[in-house]
Design brief:
Elements lengths: L6 E5 L2 E5 L17 E5 L13 E6 L2 E6 L3 E6 L3 E5 L6 H19 L3 E3 L1 E6 L2 E6 L6 H9 L4 E4 L3 E4 L7 E3 L4 E5 H6 L16 E5 L8 E12 L4 E5 L1 H9 L8 H4 L2 H14 L2 E6 L6 H15 L1
Parallel strand pairs: 2-3, 3-7, 10-16, 16-18
Antiparallel strand pairs: 1-2, 4-5, 5-6, 6-7, 8-12, 9-10, 9-11, 12-13, 13-16, 14-15, 17-18
Length: 303
């Protein structure tokens, strides 16, 4: 059973009231109405086509995400999420889509910029690593967390652009989602860890994090790519803008939600305010020491 009594949580500076237990800091009962409500209820929409795993549609009431074998989620006006799933649905599956794609839609509806990136903090500054699924974001930040950095966020970085200075990054949950090979390399036993949900063989690893619900300034944005040798390539102009734009979390939602102009303005601001680079490294874990040394040198020099 994935539903329960509604509870309040703090997430990215907002009070969230949810019938789904969430891995976020609990909020007290005092403090007014929630900014975002998560409830169970009927969600209408077309069925997921045969052979597809998900279907996204947008209507007058918001964005609907249908998940094959799980149900439907509706994100409305950046304020309400409704979940239509059987009582037998696994909590980890519900949370996988809720905290991922569904909140990606909520952030875009609210005018916030979510990036598909993982981040660490040192000396009050945040460094984010973007890349497609499987690029190694979580593995890199997990290793950095073992090397003296502080984990700030995994997989999704919610960017704060409300103030005038450098964009900020809201703190995330102090855990990373890793596959078995990455866990084995970190000398962690996957059989002792909670499954991350969905069909991928990934698990949640608790990592010492910031323990904060605040923001820190974003001082570097690295795009992870594969190559024969470890190196950093600084990106400028349209290349930097494209690197940030192409790694918006749920970029495919931007046009259907009608927020292209605002989103592009936010992307340009990040690309112009923060050094954007391509971090190139070979496939595999054997080059991690060289990656960390190259990254530390680049951070010290230019961020």
């Amino acid at each position: 059973m994935w539903t329960g009594e509604p509870r309040d949580y703090w997430w990215c500076g907002l009070r969230v009231r949810s019938v789904v237990p969430l891995p976020w800091p609990a909020a007290g009962l005092v403090g007014g109405e929630p900014a975002i409500t998560i409830a169970a209820g009927e969600v209408s929409g077309p069925s997921v086509p045969a052979g597809a795993s998900t279907l996204v549609t947008v209507d007058a009431d918001g964005l609907v995400l249908g998940v094959e074998g799980l149900g439907r989620f509706r994100a409305s006006a950046g304020r309400e999420i409704r979940i239509d799933a059987p009582a037998t649905a696994r909590l980890e599956d519900i949370r996988l889509y809720l905290c991922g794609s569904v909140f990606g839609a909520i952030w875009l509806q609210r005018g916030t910029l979510p990036l598909h990136a993982s981040a660490v903090v040192r000396d009050g500054s945040c460094i984010a690593f973007a890349g497609s699924s499987g690029a190694g974001k979580s593995t890199l930040v997990a290793h950095l967390a073992q090397s003296g950095w502080t984990l700030w966020s995994d997989d999704v970085c919610v960017i704060d652009l409300m103030n005038g200075g450098v964009p900020g990054v809201w703190a995330g949950v102090a855990r990373v989602k890793l596959a078995r090979d990455a866990l084995a390399w970190l000398e962690q036993d996957a059989s002792t860890l909670p499954h991350a949900g969905g069909t991928r063989d990934k698990y949640h690893l608790e990592v010492a994090g910031a323990g904060s619900d605040g923001t820190v300034p974003l001082r570097g944005f690295y795009l992870l790519t594969r190559g024969p040798a470890v190196r950093v390539e600084r990106l400028t102009g349209l290349a930097a803008i494209d690197a940030v734009a192409g790694h918006t979390y749920c970029e495919d939602f931007v046009r259907p939600l009608g927020c292209e102009a605002r989103w592009l303005s936010q992307v340009v601001r990040v690309a112009r305010s923060v050094p954007v680079s391509r971090l190139v490294r070979p496939l595999g874990f054997g080059h991690m020491a060289e990656v960390l040394e190259t990254l530390a040198t680049d951070v010290a020099r230019g961020v």
